[in-house]
Every structure is written in C-alpha cells, then in structure tokens.
Amino acid sequence: MSDPRPRHTAAVLAAAVLWGTTGTVAHFAPEGSSPLLIGMATFGFGGLVLAVISWRAVARVLRDRRAWGWLLAGGAGAVLYPTAYYPAMDLAGVAVGNVLALGSGPIFAAALEWALDRRRPTVRWGIATAIAAVGVAALAVASGESTTGTNPIAGILLALAAGVGYALYSYSGARLIAGGRSSQGSMAAVFLVGSAVMLPLFLLLGPGPLASGHGALTVAYLALVPMAASYLLFGFALRALTASTATTLALAEPVVATLLAVVVVQERLSALAWAGLAAVAVGIVLVSVPARGLGALRARMRVR
Hints:
The protein has 304 residues and is an all-alpha fold.
C-alpha cells in the first residue's frame, strides 16, 4: 500500500502557498486599512464561508457534545491568533513579531502533543523546525523591516500569544479529526466558533476603508482563498500529520510571500534573503521526507 503522507504534506504546502498571498493582497488594500481589522475580517468571514461550504459536516460536529471542548479551545485559538499577531507586528517590529509568531507555533503544538498525547517530538523534527525558523528569521531581517517597535516586550508577549493561538486551533482540529469526525466539518466548526466572536468585534470597531468596494474585494479574496480554501487543505493534511509537523511545513508561507513580493511588488532579495529561503526549504525537506527515505539516501551516499 502506498504511503498517504506525501498527499497530506502536499496539502499543507499548497495551503502555505495560498497563505503566502495574504501579504501581497493586503499590500494593495485601501489606504488606511487597519491590519488588525483585515485579520479579523479574514478569519471572521472566512469562518462563515467554511461553515457554509461544509454545513452538513459542521452540523454533525456541533451536535456532538464530546466535540465541544475542542471546539471551544480551537475557537479560542482562532480568535487569539489574529488579534495578537497584528498588534505584535506594531509593538515588537515586523521581523521579531513575525519570527516569534510563526516560529513558535510548531513548538507550542509539539508541547501540546507531548503534554496531552504523550508524544515526544523527534530529534529530526526539532532540527528541521530550528533550521526553518532560522530561515524565517533571515527572511524577516532581510526584508528591511527589522526595526524595533514601540513596545518590544509587549510585542514579544503578543507574538508568543499568537503562536499559542496558532498551535491551539491546529491541535484542536487534529484532535477532532482523530475522533472520527470529518476534516472539513472539524476545521469549519472551529473557525465558526471563532467567527462568532470576531465578526461582532469587527463590526463594533468599524470596518473603515474595508467597507468600500475595493476593501470588500480585498476581504472577499482573503476570506475565500487564504482562509477558506487553505484551511480545507490544512484540515485534510491533519488526517495523517501531527499538528507540530503540519505547522512546521507551513513555515513555507513566508517563502511564498517573499517570492510574490519579488514578482508582484518588484522587491529585490539580498543574499541573506536567499539564504533564508534555502534554510526554510531544507527544514521542509527534512520534515516531509519519510525516515526510510532519508535512510536509503544515506545508504546510497555510503555506497558511492
């Protein structure tokens, strides 16, 4: 029987490609649009889209009383991530905030698996995650946005909180799926719970420029593609991958974002940025190639 993991690994990487378009699209949002409100609208409306697409599967999950603990935990993570991530960029600086939020996600996911599932992270996962995180850091510094924010300590704490939120909704989704529920219904139900909090907050704070035609198109794309489509792929991946592995693979997102900035926004990459891209690629290969595949490669190298 063929190994199903390559398909699930490919699903995470495809999701990361779609997530990577977020920054470029947000770059062309109406002037004066709040990054925090963009994030809340993306997750809020995206959660509704997911629920509509998978409404029958969502209804089955919502009727399952045993699911509600993980639904509430995952929904809390879905609220925490965007509401902590965007202020962290402002307070700690884009480089520090981005690296801590994205890089800490796999670590917190592994901690949840260790504490609740008694699944210890492997040495290979640790090495791969460290290499990829260093690559993300290099990309952030090379972007030229590595200046210190207005309140670094508060920003660092918020970035770590965003990492906790990311890990929490990923792990909760994985637990729901492991309980025999559909991946679509599980992820959609988690984000629907988050939407119930974020959409009222979004409307209360006021959409501002996002209420314009241009703003509505921006939000529509972000809700449909980097949110709804990506998390359908991510949920499929969690059928076979642990949350810690999936979140490490998802570190491909800043690579895609960087390459899009080169192609679309016409940015130029420094040697440090190219080194960062290479480091993330190495980390992803280490995580995605099965252990027996690496063993076979080492054996061939010894023969040569």
